[in-house]
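User: Teach me something about this protein's shape.
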Amino acid sequence: MEQIIGIDLAKRIFQVNIVSVQGEKKANKMITREKLMAFIAQQPPSRIVMEACGSANYWSRQFRQYGHDVRQISPQYVAPFRMGSKNDKNDAVAIVEADSRPGMRYVPEKSIEQQDIQCLHRVRQRLMKNKTALINQIRGLGLEYGIAIPEGAHKIMACLPDYLEDAENELTTLSRQLFHEMLQELQDCKQRLKELDIRLALISQQNEDTLRLESIPGIGPLGASALTVALGGSTDFQNGRHFASYLGLVPKEYSSGGKVRLLGITKRGDSYLRGLLIHGARSVVYRAINLPEERCGSLQRWLKGIIARSGVNKAVVALANKNARIAWALINQKAAYMAK
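Assistant: First, the predicted structure itself:
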């Protein structure tokens, strides 16, 4: 490696900062998108550093074709090294400076296959938000006409057709038509979500790592496929606790003067994946609460102990953290989950 290249990614114009291994500044200039690849191809073997943002994985794959060592840094680790006002030039300098710090943490690069699975999850996540917004709108507008519909999509799909057929309520011709259209939209959204779940389940059945992760209590097909994308080959994380920290499932520390203060979880990393782990853990915790003692395994007894000491919510987070660490171990060791 002869030099370090920091690139501030953008849509059309990129800022490129080149520094020698000894720290000598070589260049800091702007390059258009069309000329970037030709410029990188002419550079000697270098370390290329970028912020982890949109298109970063694409450019990482392109740069590696020319023998460069490509790394991505989270923007939150770059910002402290920016000197002066925020602009492209200072951002490119800050990226190189952040990379020079010992112990800097890098964001794992995703392959094409991992991006395919992640795209399915992102589309599903958007549809879930649209579905929730649509349900709230139907229930809210229904109250304006004296129609009180219980919560839940299944309740709306069961109750709303009866209200639309009832000629004695205050619904007008226009409002009935609008509610019918919203009901049809809700049905289409549920069907689309069902199709995406089937596609994700098929992908999970074809991946050995995903099948390993599905054996962990509290992790289903959705969580297993999302974990497979985040973990990759597990080599980007030192151990299971490092991966749990990457997902924001470890306590946030605010210590000073030798006094240690641990707050709530940091909530860093992928909030979608963290939410899947939390919801899966919650289902396991709620089943363990009412499980008779003679039917409890070591996991259920451990959960009941945490519930007694700290409450249900902390038990849920503790299990989500535990599952993240177990997931890393299974992928790293290519082993099967053994319940105790």
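Now, about its shape. The beta strands are 3-8, 13-20, 25-32, 46-51, 69-73, 251-253, 262-265. The first helix runs from residue 33 to 41. If you'd like, I can walk through any region in more detail.
User: That's plenty for now, thanks!
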